[in-house]
Amino acid sequence: MNEKIRIKDITPVKIAKPKDALTKPNYSARSRIYVRAVQGTFENIRRFFGLIFLGIFALIPWLEYQGQQAVLLDIASQRFNFFAMTLWPQDLTILAYTLIVSAFALFFVTTFAGRVWCGFMCPQTTWTFIFIWFEEKIEGSRNKRMKLDQRKMDADKFVRKSLKHFSWVAVALLTSLTFVGYFTPIDALFIDFFTFNTGFWVAFWVLFFTFCTYANAGYMREIMCTHMCPYARFQSAMFDKDTYTVAYNAQRGEKRGPRTRKMTPEQAQQKGLGDCIDCNLCVQVCPTGIDIRNGLQYECINCGACVDACNGVMEKMGYEKNLISFTSEHELKGGTTKIFRSKLVGYAVVLLIMTGLLIADIATRVPLEVDIIRDRNSLDRETNEGLIENVYTLKILNKSQQKRTYTVAVNGIVDASFYGDTEVTVEGGGVFTLPISVATDPSNLEVGTQKIYFRVSTLDEQGDTIEVEEPSTFIFTGV
C-alpha cells in the first residue's frame, strides 16, 4: 500500500497553427497555406512515384487488346474488361478479394512505415503538388505568391491568376476525361467531347469530375486530408512504437534558437541551444501546415518534405543531418526498432492468405456461366407419344471475349430425349437464351422430383475443354 503510483505527464503540447488561426472564431475560413518548394531525397522519391502512377493512370485507357480497349469498366453492360479477362457480376468474389488484399496491404504498409501512401502515392497528394507546381511557375515562389495575393488587382495579377486557373482547369479536364475513359471508350470520348457530340450523362460526369479535381487540388487541398479522408482518423489504430514516421528529435534539437553559420554544435550547446535553428522551413514546406516539432499529429501525411528542408539547413550549417527523419518512437528514445512484431506479422500472414485466394480464384475461374430456369407454368406434361416432358430455359453466358460454339447435353434421366439445339454459338461477352425440353418414358421415373444435369462444353484457344455442369429438377406428378 506504500508503493508510489507512477504518474505520466500527458499535458498536451501547443500545436502550431497557420497565421491568424488563433485569433479567429471556431469554424471560420482557414488561413491559406503557401507551400514552399523544397529539394531533396524524399522530394525526388515522391516525384518519381507520382510520375510513375500518373503515367500508368493516363496510359492504361489507351492500351488496346485484340482490337478493343484493353481496360474498360462497362457499367451499362455490367462487365469489366481487363485485357483477356472479362469480369461479370457473377465474379463478385474476385472484386471482394481484390478489395480485401488492398486493405490489408494498406494496413501492413501503415503499420511499418506510417502514412507513406498519403505522402507519396495518394492521388490527392499527387494532384495537389501538380497544382502547386503551376502556382510556382506562374506566380513565383512562396514569398512572391504571398505578396501577389496582398496586392490589389492589376493587369499583372489578373494575367497571372487567369493563367493559373486556366492551367488548373486544363489539368482537371484532362484528368476527368482520362478517368471517364475507364468507363466508356476513350478514343470516341475525346472526339465526341471536343466536338460537342457526347451524350448528356457522359458530359455530366466529365464536368463533374473536372470540378471535383479543380476544387480538391486547387482549393481544398489539406482539408481533404485532415477532415474528409477517413484514413487520417483510423490510422492511429495501426501505429505502434516501432512504426516509422516523420519525427523531430527534440532531445537533439531543443532548445531551439537562431545562430550564425560560424557557430558549431559544441558552441551552441555551451549557450544552451540545440541543433534546431528555428528557421521554420519545416512548417513552410508542409502541405498541411503543421509544425512537426510539436510531435506526431494526425494531419501529417509522411511526405518527408520537412525532412528534406531540415536536412538542407543542417548541411548548410555544418550540422549532422536527420534532426527530422523517418524514425520510430523507440529509436527516438535511444532504443532499436523491432521489425518483426506480432501486429506486422499478422497483417503479412493475412495479406499472403488473401492474395493466394485471389490468385486461386482467378486461376480456377471458368469463362462460362450457365443459368437454368425451369418453366413454372406447368410441373410436367404428357406428350403425344406418352412421354413425360419438362420444359427449361438455358441462359449461356460467354464470359470470354471471343466467339465460341457450345455443346449442350443432359444426363441424370434414363433414356432422356432432348428437344432443342444441341450446339449454339455465342458472341464474346454475349448471352444466349436456349429453350429446351427433356422427356422420358414414365416407367423410368418415380413420382416426385429427381435430379437432372445439364452439361455445356466448348474448347478454348489451346484446345482444352471448358465445361460447366449445372443441376436442376425433373418433376413427375404421376397424374
From TrEMBL:
<keyword id="KW-0004">4Fe-4S</keyword>
<dbReference type="InterPro" id="IPR032879">
    <property type="entry name" value="FixG_C"/>
</dbReference>
<keyword id="KW-0408">Iron</keyword>
<keyword id="KW-0472">Membrane</keyword>
<feature type="transmembrane region" description="Helical">
    <location>
        <begin position="45"/>
        <end position="63"/>
    </location>
</feature>
<feature type="transmembrane region" description="Helical">
    <location>
        <begin position="198"/>
        <end position="217"/>
    </location>
</feature>
<feature type="transmembrane region" description="Helical">
    <location>
        <begin position="166"/>
        <end position="186"/>
    </location>
</feature>
<dbReference type="Pfam" id="PF11614">
    <property type="entry name" value="FixG_C"/>
</dbReference>
<dbReference type="InterPro" id="IPR051684">
    <property type="entry name" value="Electron_Trans/Redox"/>
</dbReference>
<keyword id="KW-0411">Iron-sulfur</keyword>
<feature type="transmembrane region" description="Helical">
    <location>
        <begin position="344"/>
        <end position="363"/>
    </location>
</feature>
<dbReference type="InterPro" id="IPR009051">
    <property type="entry name" value="Helical_ferredxn"/>
</dbReference>
<feature type="transmembrane region" description="Helical">
    <location>
        <begin position="94"/>
        <end position="114"/>
    </location>
</feature>
<dbReference type="InterPro" id="IPR017900">
    <property type="entry name" value="4Fe4S_Fe_S_CS"/>
</dbReference>
<dbReference type="InterPro" id="IPR013783">
    <property type="entry name" value="Ig-like_fold"/>
</dbReference>
<keyword id="KW-0249">Electron transport</keyword>
<dbReference type="InterPro" id="IPR014116">
    <property type="entry name" value="Cyt_c_oxidase_cbb3_FixG"/>
</dbReference>
<keyword id="KW-0479">Metal-binding</keyword>
<feature type="domain" description="4Fe-4S ferredoxin-type">
    <location>
        <begin position="267"/>
        <end position="295"/>
    </location>
</feature>
<keyword id="KW-0813">Transport</keyword>
<dbReference type="InterPro" id="IPR017896">
    <property type="entry name" value="4Fe4S_Fe-S-bd"/>
</dbReference>
<protein>
    <submittedName>
        <fullName>Cytochrome c oxidase accessory protein CcoG</fullName>
    </submittedName>
</protein>
<dbReference type="Pfam" id="PF13746">
    <property type="entry name" value="Fer4_18"/>
</dbReference>
<keyword id="KW-0812">Transmembrane</keyword>
<dbReference type="Pfam" id="PF12801">
    <property type="entry name" value="Fer4_5"/>
</dbReference>
<keyword id="KW-1133">Transmembrane helix</keyword>
